[in-house]
Amino acid sequence: MVLCSLGDLLLDVVVRLDEPLPRDGEATAVTRVGAGGQAANVAAWAAVVDAEARFVGKRAEDATGRLVAQELGARGVAVLGPVGEGRTGVVVSLAEPGGVRSLASDRGVAPDLRAEELEMAWFRGCDVLHLSGYSLFRSPIDHAGAKAAGAVRQQGGRISVDLSAAEAILAFGAERFRNRLGQLQPDVVFATEREVDALGGEVPASVLVRKRGAEGIAVETGGETVDLAATPADVVDTTGAGDALAAGFLVGGPELGLAAAARCVAKLGAMP
User: Fold this and answer.
1) Please, where are the H alpha helices in the chain?
2) What residues contact residue 62 under an 8 Å CB cut-off, 6+ apart?
3) Among 12, 109, 216, 261, which is disulfide-ready with 229 (CB 3.0 to 4.6 Å)?
């Protein structure tokens, strides 16, 4: 199976706090720095579960861009897309005791990917194209995502979308975002309950995978819902669990997705 993902390749700075961080204070922590970004994470986990994985995105010709591209490539992912001026983005993830995490995101040049910069050879033979919601909120990357989706659909491939962030949906406009999803006609949408609520209406997808954290997932297909419990794990950090779930689900179904998510939360950082 060939899985392509389009979106962000960023530097992840994961900080696992040993204690709550006081305002205007200090706390001890364990940190991990390396490649990240929702689309890159999905590609890396797809490679782990034995898919041929391709990442398509824009990064800068800076030290950060070279570092993250090298790391993602070393994980068995084909790293594709233009390299330009500017800066590669950085995401800081604060993981509190118990695994709850908060994100501060700087997407750098990733949203600047233009449709005309895509090469259709990158998507040849692609069975499924995964788009992060972040690639639909900004231009010109939204046009690049639509072009890639059209190319994959034309050759019989599936399209999946992760809604990504409730706050981003509300800022973009729920109705506007539903219309954008309707134009893409994704086969699978991954979303948390907050993201579904933020969308404020029916999710235009053949399959909706509701991500419920420690409670597992609910898979809605054709008006029927199947609830699946999370695979047991000792939670260290929940960063990237949804990306691991998406990769496993798309490659091998719900059970593989839940198993990948369990592997992810048992370690620090979003990558395998």
Assistant:
1) 38-48, 63-74, 134-137, 141-154, 166-172, 174-184, 193-199, 241-252, 254-265
2) 86, 87, 88
3) 216
Structure tokens at 179: 């219309």
Sheet of strand 88-95, all strands in order from the earlier edge strand to the far edge: 29-36, 10-17, 88-95, 101-108
For domain 2-265, the CATH architecture is 3-Layer(aba) Sandwich (3.40)
Q: What does the alpha-carbon distance between residue 8 and residue 37 come to, in Å, rounded to a whole number?
A: 5
pLDDT tens readout for residues 59-85: 999 999 999 999 999 999 999 999 999
Q: How many CB atoms lie within 10 A of CB 255?
A: 12
- Of the candidates 272, 91, 269, the one whose C-alpha atom is nearest the C-alpha of residue 260 is 272
**Per-residue tokens: 49:** 């579960």
Integer Cα distance of 112 and 100 in angstroms: 31
* Residue given tokens 């709550």 in the structure block: 20
Domain map (residue ranges) of the chain? 2-265
- Name the residue among 135, 136, 127, 110 with its Cα closest to residue 58: 110
| pTM reported for the whole predicted model | 0.94
